[in-house]
Amino acid sequence: MPKQLFSTERLDVREIDMGDVKDIFEVYSDEEAMTWVGDGSPIKYTDCIKWVDITLENYKQRGYGLSAIYEKTTSKHIGFCGIVHPGGQPEPELKYALRKEYWGHGYGTEVAKGMTSYGQKELQLPRIISTVAEEHSASQKVLQKAGYSYQSSITEDDNSRTLTFAIG
Question: What pLDDT was estimated at residue 93?
Fold first, then answer.
């Protein structure tokens, strides 16, 4: 049974396991949602399996990784969040993605606040960053409401800009 990490007013957040592959695929195969993730392309089902394998290894090595988000009242899976180290970067980074039907209802801010608090208090992470595309104003607002502040920006190889926000 996956470990419960924390709860917020409307959400329960727990570690993921292989039983979550289908839900990961449903979130990360959505073209519109993936506009803002990685290279902007939906991921394949086999990549979702690899992602769970990597996350399970992260749990063993770091004690944290990607987590599943459930709405309390319905027990419905609504997305994923976590603190990760993409590409082995040294700084812990907050990541989150929600099913489209849950956008615009405050769930992103709620889970960003909850995961950040969990990271700072339970995991003793003094500083957490989060990166976001310059054009993704909704996600920037989520981060600001969660207590993050703008730190810097970089121009990517494709001339897009990625903003870094941080807390701590």
Answer: 97
